[in-house]
Design goal:
Blueprint lengths: L1 E8 L11 E11 L2 E7 L2 E7 L5 E2 L1 E6 L1 H8 L3 E15 L2 E2 L11 E9 L7 E6 L3 H6 E2 L4 E4 L8 H6 L5
């Protein structure tokens, strides 16, 4: 089960280049249900995603390079390319009444900087272990709008639509 919230940003974190990152290319074979192929550096995957915005079923299967490029030719719409930075979010905030996490508790922000045709779009995603934790999460001050429930910010939608600036 994938449980995540998605945000636009007010600003990029300082020293972005210090964080680990991946070059990602992904394409969609279907969007309902979502069937996606992804190249992440030199790793390849086929992903199935069920319905949902905050939480949905997700299954990943490994592919080899040849299978990825064979399926890529069958993809619909735009091929999405982006750089993903993995940024630790130490001591994340949660709503009052939510149990205080341990001192060393850290979430990971997956910050995506999109290449054309979707540039200058930048999104941050944070995954959680439960729906309750996702709802109780208080984003850091460098996050802006919560777009979790806005279809136009989901990659499957972006694959079929050019982003309007």
């Amino acid at each position: 089960m994938e449980i995540e919230r998605k945000f636009t940003l007010k600003r990029l974190p300082a020293n972005l280049e210090q964080y680990p990152h991946y070059e990602i290319e992904q394409a969609y074979l279907n969007i309902d249900p979502v069937i996606r192929i992804r190249k992440q550096d030199d790793d390849y995957y086929l992903t199935y995603k069920g319905r949902g915005m905050l939480a949905r079923e997700e299954s990943n299967l490994p592919l080899n390079r040849n299978a990825y490029y064979h399926l890529r030719e069958k993809a619909d719409g735009n091929i999405i390319s982006k750089t993903r930075y993995l940024i630790p979010l130490k001591h994340p905030g949660f709503n009052e009444g939510w149990p205080t996490p341990p001192e060393d508790y850290t979430l990971t922000v997956e910050l995506d900087i999109f290449n054309p045709p979707h540039a200058p779009l930048i999104l941050a995603e944070v995954e959680f272990g439960s729906r309750e934790a996702a709802v109780a999460f208080q984003p850091p001050d460098w996050f802006d709008e919560d777009v979790t429930y806005r279809q136009e910010y989901h990659n499957s939608y972006l694959s079929l639509n050019r982003r309007k600036l």
